[in-house]
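[step 3/7] fold_predict: job queued, chain A
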Amino acid sequence: MSSGEGYGSRYGNRAHNADTRIWIASAFRVQFIKTGIEKAGSINRLAREMGYRSRIHPGWSVRQILVGEQPFPYERLLKLSDYVGYPIEEVLRYRTEPQRVTVQNTNDALARHGLWCYHIARMRLR
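[step 4/7] structure written:
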């Protein structure tokens, strides 16, 4: 087996990760996460419901997803969908390309849904 073949090859992992990391349109993403925060009571509790286990700040990854810094891992999106009671098929209708997740549309969605405290001045390049 050559170095580019087989289980765990870097080419295979990259292709697999592209399918398991999902960008969701800003307006829906913010509303969806806000619904989860309201049901859970806090961003940290929501993160634990989604399977994040950090003892220091489990909500950090959810915050990163909320502000468009990183995509949803598919397993976490599925858990949030189940937790909120929204069918995963409907959520996936809002799938988008990473280039379409901009600072402007994310900040607009954060302000519209009362989460302006998460306002971001700029986004890092992905």
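[step 5/7] annotate
The chain is about 50% helix and 5% strand.
Confidence is low (pLDDT under 50) at residues 1-16.
exit 0
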